[in-house]
Amino acid sequence: MMIVKTFLTKLRIAFSEPERVWGWLKRKIAIFVHRWQQAGVDKNISSAEIIDAHIPELVSVILPVYNQADFLDGSIQSVLNQSYRDIELIIVNDGSTDGVERVLDRYVHDPRVKVLTQENQKLPKALSNGFAEARGEFYTWTSSDNYYRPGAIAEMVAFLQKNRDVQVTYCDYIVIGDDGKPLFDSDFRPHNQDRQNSSHIHLPETTEQLNFIKDNFIGGCFMYRSWVGKVIGEYDPTLGIEDYDYWMRINRQFIIRHIDNTKLLYEYRWHAQSLSQRAEEFQIFDKAENLMLYEKLRTEFYKKEFHVFQGESASACLKDGYDKKILFLDRAENPDVSDPNTFMVSIENGELDFFDLSPVLYEHCELIITNQEYNFDLLSAYFPEKTFFLADAADNHDFVRKVANNRIFYQQTKPLELRQRNRPELYHTGKVNLMVLVDSFDTGGLEQLIYDLVVNIDKEQFNLIICCESGGYNADRCVQEKIPVIILPTEPQEKEAVFRQVLRDYRIEVINHHHGTFGLKLAKKEFGIRIVAYIHNTYCWFGEIEKFNFTKNSIYIDLFIAVSKNVAAYTNRHFQIPFRKIQVVPNGIDVNKHKGNLQWQLKFSRTDLGFAEEDFIMLNVASFHEIKAHKLLFQVMANLKKEHPQIKLLCVGNIFNGGYYQEIKNLLTEMGLQETVLLQDFSEDIWNYYRIADCFILPSFYEGWSLAMTEAMYYSLPLILSDVGASRDVIENEDIGLVVANPFGSILDLEQEKLYKLVAQDNFQNAVNFTAAILRMYKERQYWQAAGKLGHKKVVAYYNFENVISALQKVL
To answer: Going by C-beta distance under 8 Å and a sequence separation of 6 or more, which residues neighbour residue 447?
Structure first.
């Protein structure tokens, strides 16, 4: 009886309100069509199966602003006052002209806030630029005139963590007016208004109608997983209703679900500047109609079959006329592809070496998938927008098709010139207050590098001070350059108190840290200061205590700068620092200081040093220290002496260890190499040695980045290097020299105990390899003389000290 009664009531409404019934019928038809079209689409991808590069549990909130200075502060506060604290707020000032800077200035030093500024490019490109900087596991964005309620972020994070099959969630909200108070009896979304309180908006619980009924109902309070954002890509800058299109693209392939409660978690402002109010002016309804037509085209495109090519069939892929192609790339391939119909994927499940990274391959590749944790850590650090970890990477073609469908259709229908956007700049209120923190600042190669950095850093961009635990030669030189130097007391409590006061008095914003561990925890925990730390070497001499202290303090460091790929790889393996926290910035030399040396008259010649003009002189510039492997060189020279007396070795360096220096001098005599090997103390005229030599040789057991190697390249010397430090960074496919295997295997396997045994040896198994490399270079002398000139070009182009300063300033 009750069923009949209900049916009669609905029938009576149908005759009395035909428009309402027709609307209901259209929605039901749309849902049926949607379900039919989606029948072959598997949307149920568990988020536990897909991992992208992100900081776990961090929420990235993007806040674009254009000329809404009066509301901006409240919007920022609503984000920063969330009960959920693990948040980064990225504000993008899209060319505002109403003085928003007065608000931004108050937050630019907040460690949770990153402020970007750009010329006006409109909302879609402001959003895309903001998300390009995001690091969180969860993404969302908000408007500069709307407010989150205090528990909003926590509620959405909890829901997505509990529901791993859901990729996007959205929430109910309150409508407010210009005065910030609840807005009653408005005509804003009347069909979603609460009957008891018209300012409360309760949204549909499913998104089945989203792609078929012109109603962008998701609203302003939502959250999605970072990997979904990377799959979908940028916001479309051509439609005028970019958020609606974004939800459609996600809804077609993934799962969007209303949060599991009716809490009002957001305050949406409806005023004279709202898009909803100005719909006619902006032709929103016409744009929605166009979007619906565009969505139909997208639906038809997604139905088409993919043609898949792999390996040797790649060339065939580029010749055929298929509309949708997936090309699985081989690492050895170097495809020259500009076909908008082809989506290129690299599956990296095999063992990957840092030096296997091919910028050319991955530049063309649009998706990188791996099931190896090390590969993912490495690849995602350098290609974070396109690298994904899938446990079942080899077989998960469904994921590849989802990404390919979205990307190919977007690129085919949106010309490149409309998609291109200018990247924003980091917003500063003035100069950045920078501290260079170093344990000792006396003499040495490391100290010289730090001195060069602080002298050459842009003083128009940075207010610079140096803080050190002990001073000395280079500290005094900085004082002469009028750079403030603060030497801390030695007593621990007093040292900490003075350091804290310095941070406060100088309002330090960034610390550039070089060696040691003092002050890192204090600076981060008490002041939230950004810390960028240099890693100058492969710290293979560290014992367990040093390793523990390094790893323990690494949590306070925002970014590590490694001077070479080997240093980065070693740090990753032995100190568990993820690659995403390591940036390789090669060392360089001041080209201007060396430029004149190429034309100057020589101060001494080969014959002045006792060599003949026809001799083949190998130059080794390195401190006289055990790890520089002079004994290995002597073993090699003894092998060569009898049959190739014209091959000579010239060693120049500081006497780091007097006992060791005397030991190798005695060894030289014992081996009868006095006429073959010449030892020279370091000279300021080091350039003269480079100019009279035929090649540069460095068989060190470990290095970070050898400045002597870089100087040799500048003077056009071909190189013979052990496989440590930057050898494979600078030598590519034997273009400017030869890389020789180490006597202990990979540098990544060298640790303290093995190192101590190594330096105590008198006989080295890789001496035969160095002998072969020297003979090859000696016999192909003219070829390598020409090859060395490429090294000079590399230094000028890539390893000029100006490049080091520029790279450092970008990350400070």
So the answer is: 438, 440, 441, 472, 473, 474
The pLDDT of residue 14 is 45
For residues 618 and 720, the answer to whether their CB atoms sit within 8 Å is yes
Q: 705 and 559 in one domain?
A: no
CA 256/CA 233 separation, integer angstroms: 17
Categorize the per-residue pLDDT at 516 as very low, low, confident or very high, splitting at 50, 70 and 90: confident
Instruction: Give the model's pLDDT for residue 192.
Output: 92
Does 717 share its domain with 775? yes
What share of the chain has pLDDT > 70, as a percent?
90
DSSP 691: H
Q: Does 345 lie in the same domain as 201?
A: no
What band does 20 get if pLDDT is binned at 50, 70 and 90? Answer: very low
Cα(first)–Cα(last) distance of the chain, in Å? 75
Considering the entire predicted model, what is its pTM? 0.84
The kind and range of the H/E element at 546 are: helix 544-553
Q: Is position 610 within any domain?
A: yes
Q: Is 256 helix (H, G, I), strand (E, B) or coil?
A: strand
Residue 3 lies in a domain: no
Q: Which long-range contacts (CB under 8 A, 24 or more apart) does 527-531 make?
A: 527/503, 528/110, 528/111, 529/111, 529/503, 530/111, 530/558, 530/812, 531/556, 531/557, 531/558, 531/559
Total domain count for the chain? 4
48 lies in a domain? no
3-state secondary structure (DSSP) of residue 83? coil
Q: Which residues pair with 368 in a beta bridge?
A: 346, 387
pLDDT, tens digit, 9 for 90 and up, residues 326-369:
988 876 566 666 678 889 998 888 888 888 777 767 877 899 99
| The amino acid at 299 | T
10 Å CB burial of residue 138 (0-12, 13-18, 19+) is buried
Q: DSSP string covering 447-463, please?
A: HHHHHHHHHHS-TTTEE
Q: What is the CATH number of the domain that holds 667?
A: 3.40.50.2000
H or E segment at 419? helix 416-419
CA distance 689 to 680: 10
Half-sphere exposure of 280 (CA within 13 A, CB side): 1
SS3 assignment, position 435:
strand
Name residues whose C-beta falls within 8 Å of residue 253's C-beta, 6 or more positions apart in sequence.
Answer: 41, 43, 402, 405, 406
Q: In whole angstroms, how far apart are CA 309 and each of 316, 389, 492, 648? A: 8, 22, 65, 55
Beta carbons within 10 angstroms of residue 624's beta carbon: 23
Do 379 and 480 belong together in one domain?
A: no
Q: In 45-95, at which residue ranges do the beta strands (DSSP E only) sit?
A: 50-51, 55-65, 87-94
Does 290 share its domain with 322? no
Examine the domain organization and report whether 227 and 369 are in the same domain: no
| Residue 277 binned pLDDT confidence (cut-offs 50, 70, 90) | low
Domain hosting 386: range is 310-395
The SS3 call for residue 224 is: strand
Q: Please tell me the predicted confidence (pLDDT) of residue 4.
A: 41
pLDDT band at residue 158 using 50, 70 and 90 as cut-offs: very high
| Per-residue pLDDT tens digits for 22-34 | 444 544 444 444 4
Please check whether residues 617 and 726 belong to one and the same domain: yes
Q: Are residues 103 and 211 in the same domain?
A: yes
User: Which is nearest to 154 in space by CA: 46, 19, 259, 7?
Assistant: 259
- Examine the fold and report which residue of 250, 282, 302 is the final residue of a domain before the chain moves on: 302
Q: Per the structure block, which two tokens stand in for 82?
A: 């969330």
Predicted confidence (pLDDT) per residue in 426-464, tens digit: 898 888 999 999 999 988 778 888 999 999 999 999 999
Cross-strand pairs, 584: 562
Sheet order of strands, 530-535 included: 485-487, 462-470, 432-440, 510-514, 530-535, 559-562, 582-584
